[in-house]
Amino acid sequence: MTxxxxxxxxxxxxxxxxxxxxxxxxxxxxxxTAAEIAAPVPITxxxxxxRSKDSSxxxxxxxAGTGMxxxxxxxxxxxxxxxxILFGAAGIVLGFVARRRGAESLGAWAIGIGAISIIVGIFIxxxx
Length: 128
What we know:
Blueprint: H1 6-12, H2 22-25, H3 48-54, H4 66-79, H5 84-100, H6 104-124
């Protein structure tokens, strides 16, 4: 007596014994299921204070916004000589961003020089 193959068992449902569910052993179920192995992603982002504590610099004691502060100061000084409205406004905006990232004094100087440059460019330079 030969044994029926798996396909023959699943066609007529005779693969399952008496008293068991015939659908569980048949080939009707072709889904593949798996559990996720990746770590769940948090829904909320960390607050600004938590991020600034984590990234307080490259370990050398410098603040994260120092480079941006120097760029803002350079733009503000450049605005004294060339295109005061455009470069002064860019220096002010970068100064605020630098202050927010930790370069307090560089950002304040950039904001002050950029504001003076805009005021001089609007009110004093047209008369010369």
